Amino acid sequence: MMNQDCLFCKIIAGKIPSAKVYEDELVYAFKDITPIAPVHYLFVPKTHICCAKKINAENSNYIASIFEAIAKVAENENLDSYRVINNCGEDAGQSVMHLHFHMVAGKKMGWGEQSLG
Ligand code: 5GP
Ligand code: ZN
Fold first, then answer.
1. How far is CA 13 from CA 18, 35, 114, in A?
2. Which of 5, 40, 99, 104 has the largest CB neighbor count within 10 A?
3. How far apart (Å, rounded) are the C-alpha atoms in residues 18 and 14?
4. How far, in Å, is the centroid of ligand 2 from the Cα of 12?
């Protein structure tokens, strides 16, 4: 199910352009418009799930597919190291309320609250 008012639902539907990096039946992935590293992709389920809080037994197949997709992209692009990030909720930095996983690579990353800033 798609949400007409949702930015990422519009991107999945092709109503807003995006730089696609991967697509299958359940998953769409595209370049982040404001990259924080040389490689910065967003992986989203092709159904409207607001956030990680709403992952459940009925929709977790999308999550499994997203992580399979991330592994495929990493292999295709020879990404030896990468970080997968999900921001859930406002204080964690979630700004688009359609579940997404950031895939970040191409630079040495620190660890800690501000390490990706
Ligand atoms: P969040 O802050 O919710 O974890 O991540 C949302 C991400 O979506 C941000 O990194 C932001 O740069 C990206 N973003 C926001 N609007 C657009 C857009 O219209 N196109 C693309 N490709 N990325 C977007
Ligand atoms: Zn959506």
1. 10, 22, 34
2. 99
3. 8
4. 8
Q: How far is the CA of 58 from the centre of ligand 1 (A)?
A: 26
Q: Output the six-digit token pair for 100.
A: 């997404």
Pairing of the two strands 27-31 and 83-85: unpaired
How many residues make up the chain in this entry?
117
Nearest ligand for residue 3 CA: 2
How far lies 48's CA from each of 37, 79, 102, 107, 117, in Å?
Answer: 27, 29, 17, 31, 28
CA distances from 84 to 15, 40, 87 (A): 26, 10, 10
Note the pLDDT tens digit of each residue in 43-92.
999 999 999 999 999 999 999 999 999 999 999 999 999 999 999 999 99
The reply to whether the predicted model has a pTM over 0.90 is yes
**Distance between CA 71 and CA 13 in Å, rounded?**
24
Q: Which amino acid is it at 116?
A: L
